[in-house]
Amino acid sequence: MKRAILAGLLLASYAGYAKGPVTGDSLSRKTVTVYTTAAKTTLRIAATDKLSFSPSKQPYETEVCIFVDPAKSFQTMTGIGGALTDAAAEVFAKLPKEKQAELLKAYFDPVNGIGYTLARTNIHSCDFSSESYTYIEEGDSALKTFSVKHDMTYRVPFIKAAIAAAGGKLTLFASPWSPPAFMKDNGSMLQGGKLLPRYYQAWANYYVKFIRTYESLGIPVWGLSVQNEPMAKQTWESCNFTAEEERDFIKRYLGPTLQRAGLSTKKLIAWDHNRDQIYQRASTILEDPAAAKYVWGIGYHWYETWTGSSMEFDNVRKVKEAFPDKNLIFTEGCVESFKLDKVNDWALGERYGTSILNDFNSGTVAWTDWNILLDEKGGPNHLGNLCFAPVHADSKTGELIYTNSYYYLGHFSKFIRPGAKRIIASSNRTDLQTTAFVNKDGKIVVVVLNTSDKELSYKLWIKGNAADVKSLPHSIETLVVN
């Protein structure tokens, strides 16, 4: 990405909800700034128009409209971000210093970048590590040898650099891919297997050790998930829990252990797997009060498509309808099967745009991408599970390759800030998808996604006033009403 593009990304600061409702009279004094990213153009989160509202009577059915109602509000935004894995940290460490600074600014600066406020990291190794490792010696169920020395080379410095780039605060949660091999019935961190019951308490203690150790290093941990992808037997680090097993581990071991350790304020996330089975898992855990009291929310991924399914947003919505007091968090997503000659495919970003928009409309409060940085091979990954990231680094030249996924993510993360509340946004054409939020300063943010081959003109219609907007083919727009 050219420096000029980074420098041109503008965002006002947010402070305090504006007072008073949005009315027709107040809208007549507001403007709409349009930011656009579009296929077959050079537009990348570019300010493309500044529009005014004018009175608009009842629209005809022939008029294309996005209807926004700020009076109806829903969930409050926690944050948007990505994963700070071993792989991302290793690639980052090999970049020239000026490119490291560029990447940190691109992701975490809210003015000259896309303003990430949320991050995920792995508890010891995952597939996006260069090797399998744990923080203890094999067989040490008392955790006397616990040490994160491995992480001190790449990951801890990288996370600290990200926190600093984000202004000193970054909402971070952690996820385990597998307990140590000796704690499992298959004797391996790989290939699924189950946590042996006699190690349930030792494994619960392990989470506490991780949190306390990272926090002693100056890395606050906001939350944790129970287990990454508990229904997947992967060739890499994985561990399987049925819904009942996860429920019982939470209520009998992990929840009470966090509470006894004074860590009950940490946000505990259950499931952390795909949308296809999210309701079955959520209902099994949350219908048990003894387990539910420890659970902040349900995490999920987008890989249900491996079965041939489309992304199943309605399942997410059903969880929110059934358990309105619990939160929803998208914990991981990436485009798989990396190929360097595909980094400019427009479908990469459109998958992100479609997912984020529909997940928010389903009640999600936080959205976490997978690796924020990988190399030109889609790794490193110790078992060859190579994937796309929004940004890739060429290890030979040190150059950064910004895919359009980075910009699609930025249309949300840059403008929809923590504390924003989702409001109603309704489209009368299937070719235009939309979501909307009102930030703490009262600015209304409307995102409009066009995945069609058509240029579409539409009205942004709010309380009897409308602004005329144009949507380019295969584009995403963020409209800021101020």
UniProtKB/TrEMBL annotation:
One of its GO terms (molecular function) is glucosylceramidase activity. The keyword Signal applies. It comes from the Bacteria. Residues 419-479 form the Glycosyl hydrolase family 30 beta sandwich domain. One of its GO terms (biological process) is glucosylceramide catabolic process. InterPro entries: GH, GH30_C, Glyco_hydro_30, Glyco_hydro_30_TIM-barrel, Glyco_hydro_b. The keyword Signal applies. Keywords: Glycosidase, Hydrolase, Signal. Residues 78-416 form the Glycosyl hydrolase family 30 TIM-barrel domain. One of its GO terms (cellular component) is membrane. Residues 1-18 form the signal peptide. Belongs to the glycosyl hydrolase 30 family. This is Glucosylceramidase. It comes from Chitinophaga sancti.
